Automatic annotation (TrEMBL):
Family: Belongs to the SAT4 family.
Record's signal peptide: none
Protein location: Membrane
Coiled coil: none
Domain Rhodopsin as annotated: residue spans: 28-229
Residues that span the membrane, as ranges: 12-32, 44-68, 88-111, 123-145, 178-197, 204-224
Pfam families reported for this sequence: Fung_rhodopsin
Official protein name in the record: Rhodopsin domain-containing protein
Recorded topology in the membrane: Multi-pass membrane protein
Species this protein is from: Bionectria ochroleuca (Gliocladium roseum)
Length: 236
């Protein structure tokens, strides 16, 4: 039986909880939409693809926790473990950047089907979609090719001038990600006000989407974490 220290147990429990909750919510969404005969190849397909990438993301995290970071996953104890940690961190950052883009595009495709009644709404959704696609291409590329040679991305101290600093990439990434999260969140809230629904029906629907505020809070948390970690050197 694998023995994990307390910090690792927390990381392990969090990863398992997130994958379980995501499985339940994605499965419930697909089940209900299939039952209502409203499955969409684009929006639901993107949702399923983002779930698969999220599983890969969590799988890498669990592999690292169980095989390398048993004492403290965020403080590698040897130079070899630090290199492995940075390599997994590199892959996960690329996966994360692409995955959150798929989530936004899945929501926007759903908005198009549900709220794309008025021409103005369609223009807004199409414009935000174009922005998200451009964001995905730019920041996935930067996450993957932050260093002139890819293998320098998991070198603790790469040669001077070979890599962009992590904060120079990830601070703009998280800042603009937060911006798009807020924009995507606001689209249904303002659109519902234009639909011919009774006040009693509008409030619950708006409330469902307002839950998405938690995503924005998570983005703010990542921004704070990146800002605080930018000045701390990596060491084993």
């Amino acid at each position: 039986m694998i023995t994990l220290d307390q910090p690792t147990q927390r990381a392990f429990s969090t990863a398992v909880a997130f994958i379980a909750l995501t499985f339940i919510f994605v499965g419930l969404r697909l089940f209900l939409r299939a039952r209502a005969k409203q499955l969409s190849f684009l929006s639901d397909g993107l949702c399923l693809a983002s779930f698969v990438l999220f599983c890969a993301f969590v799988g890498l995290m669990l592999e690292y926790i169980l095989n390398i970071g048993k004492s403290d996953p965020f403080k590698p104890s040897t130079p070899t473990d630090l290199a492995k940690f940075l390599k997994i961190l590199y892959v996960e950052q690329v996966l994360f950047t692409f995955d959150i883009s798929l989530v936004k595009l899945s929501l926007l495709a759903l908005y198009w089907n549900v709220f794309g009644v008025h021409r103005r709404t369609k223009i807004v959704i199409a414009t935000v979609t174009a922005g998200c696609v451009i964001w995905c291409i730019v920041f996935t590329f930067l996450a993957a090719f932050r260093c002139r040679s890819i293998d320098y991305a998991w070198v603790p101290v790469p040669p001077p001038g070979t890599c962009m600093s992590r904060s120079d990439v990830y601070l703009p990434l998280e800042g603009t990600n937060l911006f798009f999260d807020i924009v995507v969140l606001c689209i249904p809230v303002f659109t519902i006000g234009q639909l011919n629904l009774s006040k009693g029906k509008k409030i619950p629907v708006i409330g469902i989407f307002v839950v998405g505020v938690s995503v924005c809070v998570a983005s703010i948390g990542r921004l704070v974490g990146i800002t605080q970690g930018a000045s701390r050197p990596l060491s084993a």
